[in-house]
Write a structure and sequence with these properties.
The complex is a heterodimer of chains A (841) and B (255). With 841 residues, chain A is α+β, with helices and mostly antiparallel strands. In chain A, helix 2 crosses helix 9 (361-374). Chain B has 255 residues and is of the alpha/beta class. Chain B is built from 6 helices and 11 strands. A 9-stranded mixed sheet of chain B has the order 9-8-7-10-6-1-4-5-11, with helices on both faces. In chain B, strands 2-3 form a two-stranded antiparallel ribbon. The chains are: A alpha+beta (841), B alpha/beta (255).
Chain lengths: 841, 255
């Protein structure tokens, strides 16, 4: 074909809801010279968009997902392609009714009008439902159904009409060529069966086919094609008579993991209850080979029989409907059920926009376009969807399939905020797991690592400190009073924390000082042995990360970040390397392990096994030194995230076990106990008011609002500096606060404990939702007991006028309100030892 | 009325059909399976006959164990009795062997429960397209057969069967017991209901192992003709395209 382009600025592969919306938004943001390719025909090229049920239930527990969904609904509405019909989730079990209270809490938090219904009220809206099998409903009037194919067509057409886009359907991508870039391979061209297009940027928006496309370039997009069964059943007089596409609310039968959605005279019955059926990309037929479309695979009826029985239980007339169309529809599942968006970690200028539902498609299109245009999205913080979140061991098919199999049946499940994965455990462990196993550690997974969350061997401390339990099973799930007891013991004696999951990078070379100054907010030109705790910003001045940097040498820095952020942070630091060879980046996570030793006895314990002087005068707070402990080489860093005297101690992994044994052995004279990450990450932290990336810190907030702005701004330029300076000019419209829960008593008379899962709104004393001048809702970012303070604490951003200490507010938890009081705000949020006397002792 | 319908499990392919490496079968690795469309119509016709006249519809297939799926589908759309002649050889029997097996099965079933008034086949199978099995069975049973049937009327024990030919419609009268080869279009087969599907799981399937020797027809290899690549030429959008559509139709001589 003579008019096939040989050059383009950007090639988007995949004309489903995501690819189409992306090219529309890129055009709006000023991009031109875009080419959109799809192997299939238009308007339905045969991907998952083409067989989607196209309905949207906006209420979700995740802010990120809700932001994307609400923006998508707005876009569908603006195009006139949304039918707002309302939707009801029905409960068959008491557990589900409890879950509905959580959903009400989330809906309140995000400002999505919803209400709980009795079975009779459900029947008023859905007259053909069998009330005898349900216990209640959760009704959201703004549930809608959309036309995703036409939306895609219009978004694509908008870009074509603007002259920024050329579209080529029936065009197969054969290869994505790369060249040698400054730091890693760089996208160079897309080879198709119609010709080669040299290009600067490639976006893979190919849904289930994305892994294959990524592989062509040497990158990974961790997802697996998986089956979602759906049958169209009908016709039914009761539906035909309505003469409408959707006259009744869409029903989600949450305990059977099924939905019933009217489609004119028929009902679509879909299920997430059948066995997980995963396919490999190579098993998907081509457009020509497929009986229907490639992603409408042959229906395996046996897998659907139980769902049919349950659907008939709920709506008896369904039994007499003919099954006119039934498919094993393919969709994309990632290891953690979130999308995979953003620049791929392996290849520069190669982007992923995959594993996206129709309900998030247009929002994802906008988000990725913003990301490509501004360097970081504005729509929401993509923390949970960033493709860089996965570590190498989480990108292979074994991991992807194991986790997808595990979470598929949780699509409509009741998933506890602290719920742990069951599969692919013990894949990544520190050097002392044999020891912590003996101590009966209960492990939580932290970024793939096994990290002791508490130690059953400390259960005797519960009686010692008279730590109370929790009344409600939900509050006590994946929780133990042992953690609070470990906390109190550490404050009284000493604790050792296995921090092997820390992500440790080192950067070095003649250009390293300029580089590191450019990357972070705070001044890095400190003395050798000095440390810097600093925000890392995106170009818009919001948080990209927060982390600690040690200056190990004139031209050598160590960057230490959390297990949940290592992937994203590594991408960011590597991506911004100067590329001229003046800075080397090394990931040292696997070569170093870390232990924290803290508490009043910590210094004495460690002093007993080293000849170096550990007192403050010889080894001041915030500095690091090379120290031999029991004859083993370590880097000791005097710091604390838990507010007590002590050190983080780094040693080569091969010495980790010996070092642990030496400290434990010496500690036996000082009642040293192992202490879990529940203390390190929550109770110790919250008593000191320390912020956590992904909780308090995200791209929507600035260091000024987080109370992390220093009095002065360094001279050196850094990413986000301009926005940071602007943020410092006026008074912030919101500030991070610590609040105390004043009463835990629920309506039934026992105590409840908010989770801090991000979905619990802070309300005024009269119960009003609180939104700041920038439209951001006040919600709990962290919740946890502060055993040494004797209070249960919450962290939340509040509009500045509500930040005054002593202000009475409320928190919603499980659809009930509890009184809270502002207890701290500003830079120092510590309610325990606010002068830091213990850490600096 | 006692009716027998013979069906075959066949792959449900798209427009491109892949052939197995030994070139003897369709590659079904990623395909679903269905009943040949002519046979679905035969089954629908049989269901309508017994709804009107009373009786039973026995559905018989020769095939792998998985062909139970097609028998259960038949149970969900009106079949009453089900017989599977196992063939787990991994491939189709040749038409002669299949016909011999079905003939033996019919003899056995009729010996047990009485003669079938009507035996129906699809005009030809959707995959092999041999056009042979029905005729061979009818000849072996010494019963009349007409193929290509797109209409049946029943008057006592006489079947009036119609088929379309180039010159018009041929009408045949056959006295029971008779055999008919049914063509798609005779009716619009019903879809199974959800209740029907669930009930079909309980249907009893009789397994009828039959020893038959291979026939004289050997498949040498399958050949896939070269794909015809058709270029889509978009004439335009909405009303603006009307004039070009008219021109094209004129060019094609269809106006």
């Amino acid at each position: 074909m003579s008019d096939f382009p040989t050059k383009a600025k950007c090639v988007v592969i995949g004309a489903g809801i995501v690819g189409n919306c992306l090219v529309g938004h890129l055009t709006d943001m000023g991009w031109d010279d875009i080419v959109l390719l799809d192997k299939g025909p238009l308007p339905n090229p045969g991907g998952s968009t083409g067989h989607a049920s196209n309905f949207i239930f906006p209420a979700d527990h995740s802010k990120e997902i809700v932001d994307l969904t609400l923006d998508s609904q707005k876009q569908y509405e603006e195009l006139g392609l949304q039918n707002t019909c309302g939707g009801i989730e029905v409960a068959r079990t008491p557990e589900r009714l409890e879950e509905f209270k959580r959903r009400m809490t989330s809906a309140t938090c995000w400002g999505i009008p919803s209400e709980l219904l009795t079975p009779a009220e459900v029947k008023e809206r859905v007259p053909f439902i069998s009330v005898d099998v349900i216990l209640g409903g959760f009704y959201t009037p703004s549930v809608s159904a959309v036309d995703s194919l036409e939306t895609g067509t219009q978004m694509r057409k908008k870009a074509q009409d603007a002259g920024s886009l050329q579209v080529f359907a029936n065009t197969e991508v054969i290869d994505i060529e790369t060249s040698t870039g400054p730091n890693k391979p760089l996208v160079q061209a897309v080879l198709t069966d119609k010709g080669r297009i040299e290009c600067e940027t490639v976006v893979i928006a190919c849904g289930v086919w994305s892994p294959r496309l990524a592989e062509m370039a040497g990158a990974t997009i961790p997802l697996t094609p998986a089956v979602h069964q759906m049958a169209d059943v009908g016709p039914f007089d009761v539906l035909v008579e309505t003469q409408q596409e959707l006259a009744y609310p869409i029903v989600r039968d949450m305990d059977t993991f099924c939905y019933e959605r009217q489609s004119a005279g028929s009902m679509e019955v879909g299920s997430y209850a059948h066995r997980p059926i995963l396919h490999r990309v190579d098993e998907i037929p081509s457009n020509n080979e497929a009986a229907l479309s490639p992603t409408e695979m042959p229906f395996t009826a046996d897998d659907f029989d139980q769902q049919m029985e349950e659907a008939i239980e709920l709506m008896e007339f369904l039994g007499d409907g003919e099954i006119k169309y039934a498919i094993n529809g393919l969709l994309s599942l990632t290891p953690d059920a979130n999308p995979v968006l953003g620049p791929t970690v392996e290849v520069d200028n190669l982007w992923s926009a995959a594993a996206v539902w129709v309900k998030e498609g247009p929002g994802v299109g906008r988000l990725v376009a913003e990301w490509m245009t501004h360097g970081y999205p504005h729509l929401t913080d993509p923390h949970g969807a960033d493709i860089a979140r996965f570590y190498p061991q989480q990108r292979n098919v074994h991991h992807i399939e194991a986790r997808a199999e595990e979470h598929f049946n949780k699509t409509y499940g009741i998933v506890h905020p602290r719920e742990q994965w069951a599969t692919r455990r013990d894949i990544t462990t520190g050097p002392v797991k044999a020891r912590t196993d003996v101590l009966e550690a209960f492990y939580f997974e932290a970024g793939g690592w096994e990290r002791p969350h508490w130690y059953e061997s400390n259960s005797d401390l519960v009686a010692t400190y008279e730590v109370p339990g929790r009344d409600h099973e939900w509050d006590a799930r994946w929780w133990t009073p042992i953690s609070d007891a470990e906390h109190l013991h550490m404050r009284d004696q000493a604790g050792i924390v296995d921090l092997s999951a820390f992500q440790v990078f080192e950067v070095s070379g003649p250009g390293v000082l300029d580089y590191i100054e450019h990357m972070v907010v705070n001044k890095c030109d400190v003395k050798i042995g000095g440390s810097i705790y600093t925000p890392v910003l995106n170009s818009s001045g919001g948080f990209r990360s927060d982390l600690t940097i040690l200056r190990l040498g004139h031209n050598r820095f160590r960057i230490i970040t959390g297990a949940f952020d290592g992937g994203r942070d590594e991408y960011w630091f590597r991506h911004n390397l100067p590329g001229d060879g003046t800075v080397q980046f090394e990931n040292r996570t696997n070569g170093l392990c870390t232990f924290g030793v803290w508490g009043p006895n910590a210094i004495s314990i460690l002093q007993g096994i080293t000849e170096s002087h550990l007192d403050q005068s010889a080894f001041p707070y915030g500095t690091c030194q090379e120290v031999l402990i029991a004859g083993l080489p370590t880097d000791m860093f005097r710091v604390s995230y838990v507010g007590d005297a002590g050190f983080e101690i780094y040693t080569p992994t091969q010495h980790g076990l010996a070092l642990w044994d030496a400290i434990i052995d010496q500690g036996s004279n000082f009642d040293l106990r192992p202490v879990g990450a529940a203390v390190y990450g929550t109770s110790g932290r919250i008593e000191k008011g320390y912020r956590l990336m992904g909780a308090e810190l995200d791209s929507e907030y600035t260091p000024v609002e987080a109370g992390l702005a220093r009095p002065k701004v360094k001279v050196a330029d850094f990413i986000g500096k301009e926005a940071y300076l602007t943020a410092r000019e006026g008074a912030p419209c919101a500030q991070l606060c610590v609040l105390t829960v004043e009463s835990h008593a629920c309506i039934d008379g026992y105590n409840r404990f908010p989770m801090g899962a991000g979905n619990e709104p802070i309300l005024t004393s009269s119960g009003e939702r609180i939104v700041d001048a920038k439209g951001r809702v006040s919600r709990v970012t962290t919740a946890g007991n502060a055993p040494s303070v004797g209070k249960y604490l919450l962290m939340a951003y509040l509009p500045t006028d509500l930040c005054e200490i002593g202000t009475d507010l409320q928190v919603m938890y499980q659809n009930e309100n509890y009184p809270v009081k502002v207890a701290a705000t500003g830079a120092n949020l510590a309610l325990f030892d606010p002068d830091n006397g213990r850490m600096k002792a | 009325m006692r009716v027998l319908v013979c069906v075959k499990r066949v792959p449900a392919p798209g427009s491109r059909i892949n052939i197995s490496p030994d070139q003897l079968n369709v590659d079904t690795a990623h395909l679903g399976f269905t009943t040949s469309p002519h046979e679905e119509c035969a089954l629908e016709e049989a269901a309508q006959i017994i709804e009107e006249h009373g009786g039973t519809v026995t559905v018989l297939t020769a095939g792998p164990t998985e062909a139970e799926e097609q028998l259960r589908y038949a149970a969900s759309v009106g079949g009453t009795d089900f017989v599977l002649i196992p063939n787990n050889s991994g491939g189709d029997w040749d038409p002669e062997r299949t016909a011999n097996a079905i003939t033996q099965a019919v003899n056995k079933l009729e010996a047990e429960d009485g003669q079938f008034d009507l035996i129906m086949f699809g005009n030809e199978s959707a995959d092999a397209g041999g056009f042979q099995v029905g005729v061979r069975v009818a000849v072996a049973l010494d019963r009349p057969i007409v193929n290509g049937i797109k209409g049946i009327e029943i008057n006592d024990r006489v079947f009036t069967a119609r088929r379309e030919v180039d010159t018009g419609v041929e009408v045949y009268q056959l006295e029971a017991p008779a055999v008919l080869g049914i063509r798609e279009g005779i009716n619009l087969p019903r879809y199974p209901t959800m209740k029907g599907r669930l009930a079909s799981k309980k249907a009893e399937i009789a397994i009828a192992p039959i020893e038959v020797h291979p026939g004289g027809q050997n498949k040498v290899r399958l050949h896939r003709p070269e794909e015809r690549v058709t270029e889509t030429n978009v004439l335009g959008e909405s009303a603006a395209a009307a004039a070009r559509v008219v021109d094209l139709l004129d060019e094609l001589g269809v106006l």
